[in-house]
Inverse folding.
DNA sequence: AACAGAATGCGAAATTATCGCAATTACGCG
DNA sequence: CGCGTAATTGCGATAATTTCGCATTCTGTT
C-alpha cells in the first residue's frame, strides 16, 4: 500500500463519515481543487484504502429493532467444528458481525433482531448445541457513532 | 416511516452493498427507469431508510491494527457526567462505536488502535477518571462479516 | 543546478443527477 | 362500477458532477 499524505487522510476521514460529498465540497474542506480531490479519491479506491462505499440502512427497515451483544463460550477441542459453527451463524440475517476474541468468551457477536422474542427463538435454535458451552447476552439500549469533525 | 415496496427493498439491498451505483446500473437490476430509481433513492434518504452513506476505510490505513472491545463500568449518579464522558470518548479517533447496554457494564466500546501500547496509552489518558469505576478489555483476534448476498 | 516523475489547476467533454410535464397506475369513495 | 384524487412512471431538457487532456508547478534525486 502506497504512501498517504495529509490530504489523503483528510479525505478518508471526510468520506468515512459521508461518502456522498461532491468534489467541490471536499475541495472547500481540504484546500485543493475539486479535480485534485476526485483524482485522489479515485486513487484511494484503486489502492484499496477505500475498501467500499455503502449505504447504512436503518434497522427499523431491516427489521432489527433490538441490538444485542452475545458472548459465546465454546466447547474446546475441534477447530473445524467451531469453523462450521461460525459460518453457520454468519449466514443468519440477524448476525451483523462476529469477533473472535481473547478472554472467557471465544466469540462476541453483534445481532439485530426484530424483537426479544425473535432473539429467544434464535438462541433456542442455534445456541443450545454441543459446540457451545454457554453464552451471555448484553442488550444494547442505544448506540452512538463518531460524529463528523 | 412510510411503506416500502419490493423496489425499495431491492434498492436498499443493492445500495447497502455498494452505494456508488448509478441510476442506470440500478435501473437495469430492478427494472425501472433510471430517473424512477434515483427518485426512490432520494426518498429513501429523506425518510431515513438510508441513514447515511459512508466509505469503508481499510484498517491498514487508519492504523487500526488492533481491535478491542471495552466494557466500561461507570460510577453511578450523574447522567450529565456520563453524557459528557461519552461525547469525549466519541471524539477519539480510535473509537468506532459505543453501545449503551444492560448488564454489569454500562458502555461497550469498539476501538481500533495502532498497537497494544497505543491502547495502553489511551486507557491511561481516559479510563482512569472519576466517572469510570472500572473496565474490562477484550482483544479481538479476528473479525468476520456476513457475506453479501 | 538540472532533471524526471508526480501532482496541481484549469477548462472541455462525458457522465450522472435533477427537474418539469404529460401519461399511466393505484386506490378510496360515492 | 365508475369517477376523481394522489402518487408514480417514463421521457426529455437542464443542471450538476465527474473525468480527461494539457500546460504548469512542485518534489526529490543525482
Amino acid at each position: 500500500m502506497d504512501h498517504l499524505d495529509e490530504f489523503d487522510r483528510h479525505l478518508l476521514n471526510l468520506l468515512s463519515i459521508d461518502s456522498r460529498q461532491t468534489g467541490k465540497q471536499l475541495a472547500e474542506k481540504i484546500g485543493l481543487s475539486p479535480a485534485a480531490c476526485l483524482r485522489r479519491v479515485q486513487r484511494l479506491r484503486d489502492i484499496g484504502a477505500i475498501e467500499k462505499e455503502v449505504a447504512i440502512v436503518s434497522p427499523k427497515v431491516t427489521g432489527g429493532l433490538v441490538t444485542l451483544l452475545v458472548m459465546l463460550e465454546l466447547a474446546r477441542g475441534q477447530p473445524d467444528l467451531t469453523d462450521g459453527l461460525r459460518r453457520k451463524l454468519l449466514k443468519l440475517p440477524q448476525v451483523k458481525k462476529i469477533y473472535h476474541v481473547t478472554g472467557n468468551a471465544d466469540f462476541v457477536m453483534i445481532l439485530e433482531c426484530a424483537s426479544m422474542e425473535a432473539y429467544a427463538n434464535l438462541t433456542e435454535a442455534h445456541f443450545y448445541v454441543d459446540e457451545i458451552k454457554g453464552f451471555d447476552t448484553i442488550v444494547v439500549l442505544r448506540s452512538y457513532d463518531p460524529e463528523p469533525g
Q: What stands out?
A: Residues 22-24, 34-35, 38-39, 42 of chain A lie near DNA strand D (CB under 10 Å from a C1'). The mean pLDDT of chain A is 94.
